[in-house]
Structure formats: C-alpha cells, structure tokens
Amino acid sequence: MGKIIVTIVVIIVSLGAIAKVLSNNKKKSEEKTKIVAQQNASVSVRIDTVSRAVPDLDVVANGNFAPAQELKLASEKSGRVVHVLADEGSYVKQGQTVATIRVDQLSVDLHNAEANYQTARTDLERYENAFKTGGVTQQQLDQARLNVVNAKAKLDQSKINLGDANIRATISGIVNKRHIEPGSVVSPGTALFDIVNVSTLKLNVTVNEAQIPYLGVGKQVKVKASVFPEKTFTGKINFIAPKADEALNFPVEITITNNAANQLKAGMYGTAIFDFPNQSSVIMVPRTAFVGSVNSKLVFVADNGVARLTSVTPGRVIGDKVEVLNGLTEGTLVITSGQINLVDGSRVSILQ
C-alpha cells in the first residue's frame, strides 16, 4: 500500500515538472514571436516629396475706410445764429462762410474802438502843434503817439472779433451733419458742422512680420471695396508702424485717392491686396511634417522604409507650408502623418 502511494506521488511530481517546463518553453516562444513581430512590423505613414517652390506671399488685409480729413467745426464766439449757409450733403471749400452769428456786443465794441482811435489821432495832432510852440513837453507828445498805437491795436482786434461772427470752413469737404438752425444761440465750443473730406481716404490694416521686408512707404497697393467688387482702386503706403501690436502684427496706413464720383465713403469695408513679385524659389515642406510643432525643428524622413529623425532649420511660415533653410534637400521623402507612432529607426510603410 505504501509503495502505491509513493508511486502516485512520484507520478504527480513528474507531471508537474513536465508542465512547468512546457509552460516556460511556451513563454519563451511567445516572447521570441513578439520580438520578431516587432522587428517585422511597420507603421503606416503618408509622405511628401521635398521640392523647391516660389512662395506665394501675396496677402490681403482688411479694414475700414476713414476720411483723410475730418473736422467738427465749432463756434469761437457767443451769439445768435442769423444765417446758415450750408446744409448736410453740401460741398464747402476752405475759407467759405457757412454761417453768420449776430454779436451785438462785438458791434458796440467795434464802434467804441473806432471812436477811441479817432480821438487818439485828433489828440496827437493837437499835441504835435502845441509841441512846436512849446505848449507841451516831449514826454506828453510821446504819450499821445503811444495812445494812437494802442487805439489802433484795439480797433484791429475788434474788427477781428467781429469777423469771427462769420463762421468759415477751415477744410474743404462735404457737410456730414449740421448741428445748428437759424436762431440757435451758440457759445464758444458749440458744435456747428461736421465736415468730412473723402477726396482722399485712409485704410488702416495690419500685416505680419513675414510681409514687412517687402513693404515700404510709397509702395503702391491694390485696394478693393466690398460694395464695388468689380472696381480696383490704387492706394499708396503712407505709414508702417515701427513696432508690432499685441498680436505681433504691424499696423500699415494706406492712402487712396477717391474717384471723380467719390464712390468710396468713410466707414466702408475695404481690402488691401499686397503683391510680392519676383520671389526666388525655396525649399518648402508641409507644416504637418514637423514633430509636434515648427518650433521643434524636427521632421521624420523616410529612407528605404525606415524613419530617420532629422533636425532642420525652419524659416518663414507661409500658410500651410514652412520654408526650410537647412537640413533637407530636393527629392527627400518627408513624413507628413503618423509621426506619433514613430521613433528614430522605425520601419514604415507608405500609404498611397
């Protein structure tokens, strides 16, 4: 009975040892299979052939037209409006009288100044005659002459003040709004007319740093208005900001001469078309070729079915393309998708 039990135990132990050996062999076989599979596996990727191309730097920038000159004409004197000589929509020239103000006090001041001037002149004649006979001193004669000068200055000032009652336009343009009516009482600073000169307009836009080297003050620019898509106007760059704004764009001011009909109006939506001709060809790759972002300066190159991590020097970013200054040559196959699954040396298969 004891021999039978021992035999059974031996058999069980043997079977366990055999099972353990088989299990270990299976694990080793699976590991080898995985290694082989990993070595033979490839990552599916898409590629693009590196080539030279002329970058399309022509860009458009949008903004709103603004008048080159705009004035809120205000009264300089107090008084009652007698005549309004310009209406909304009227074209007025610089120096043209657009309204008159009745200023009774100024008229009184003018009459008094004229009277004082005539009195001073009469006194001077009397003193000059008296001086010849010794009736007055040299000092009294000098004072009489000074009185004439002062009286003449006050008379001239009164004439100027009364002349200010004729309100004149200080710029040429179209009356956009009239703030007064005959009989209105005004005081210094009261708004009278809004005058807008649209014979020349300004278009303020922004461009990025890639376009700045190709722009210059005086350069001509094509300009379109959204309401006149079939018409093209010619503008000229008048100003380029020396400093970028918070969005790292540079403000640019363009002046446009309106056509004879003054079709362009202030406030209209406009588009500036910047043309950059005569560009030389450069090596460019899709932006998606970069690992992570352009700032990484790394791309994968497909070399005989193997991905090679390559360092490059990126240049300008133009749309969905990036200029490459160094690190790639024409004809190289650059990987544009699937990089997330790649490491240097990974085998790749190219998707058509």
TrEMBL record:
Q: Name one GO cellular component term.
A: efflux pump complex
Provide the alphabetized UniProt keywords: Coiled coil
Q: Where is the CzcB-like barrel-sandwich hybrid domain?
A: 74-196
Transmembrane stretches, start-end: none
What molecular function terms (GO) are annotated for this protein? Answer: efflux transmembrane transporter activity
The record's section on NCBIfam families has: RND_mfp
A Pfam family annotated for this UniProt entry: BSH_CzcB
List the protein's name: Efflux transporter periplasmic adaptor subunit
Q: What is the species listed in this Swiss-Prot or TrEMBL entry? A: Niastella populi
Q: Which InterPro entries match?
A: Beta-barrel_RND_2, BSH_CzcB-like, RND_pump_MFP, YknX-like_C
Q: Answer yes or no on keyword Coiled coil.
A: yes
Q: Which residue ranges does the record assign to the YknX-like C-terminal permuted SH3-like domain?
A: 283-349
Domain CusB-like beta-barrel: start-end pairs:
203-272
Which segments of the protein form a coiled coil according to its record?
A: 103-161
Protein family membership: Belongs to the membrane fusion protein (MFP) (TC 8.A.1) family.
